[in-house]
Amino acid sequence: MDRSGRGWRGAVLLAGALAGVGALAGCSRGEREAPAPDAREQAARAADRADQEEAEGPYTVTPAKLNAYVGYQRAMLRVQAELVRGLEGLAGGVADGGAGGEAASSAAVERSMALIQAKARAEAQAREEAGLSEADVNGLGRIVTDVVSQRHLAQVMRYDEELRATEALRQKLPPAQQQELEPKLRALREQDQTLRGLAEVRKRYGDKNVDLVLTREAELEKNYRDMLEAYGGSRR
Length: 236
Hints:
The protein is 85% helix and 0% strand. By secondary structure, the chain is mainly α.
């Protein structure tokens, strides 16, 4: 796959990972002092939640909720950017003055946790200001991520261009050779329909949900491109 496709998906996954960490960090002091759950237990809980949400059926997108989510994404871009700057500054300080032993390491952990907890509070505030519940953000996030990432991948792979070129070539060939191209044309049509036409995404979420998300495709894609720039650009 093209490197830009991997980078796009990486930015989305990184954003999701940071959001998950922030949510876990946003607990009360008493909860923070309790032992952290085993990683396998956390993974099992996440799987249980996914199974439950799948059993309940796809989230129902509405114009009002989608509009709120677009604004929420923009707010979260600012929050994520602040977190990245803070963590990079912390990492730079550790790299420049890597002495100090256990006390310095402990202080660095405390500062990084403070940054993540601040991110969790800002995320909750952004959600509240947008009028969205956590279930809204999770449900919309899954649909939007799948729609936008698939459409972007379609742009990267350009199956539609290859399909047009192959069909044009077929018209210039004798009938026997035209038949030889049919398997390739069928495969290209299926791939194009899966990505650009969002065939699998439509099966998962329904045409109505997907079509509604596509009405805001330009803004949603910009948000993800900005997320990619925030993470990729900060490392240059």
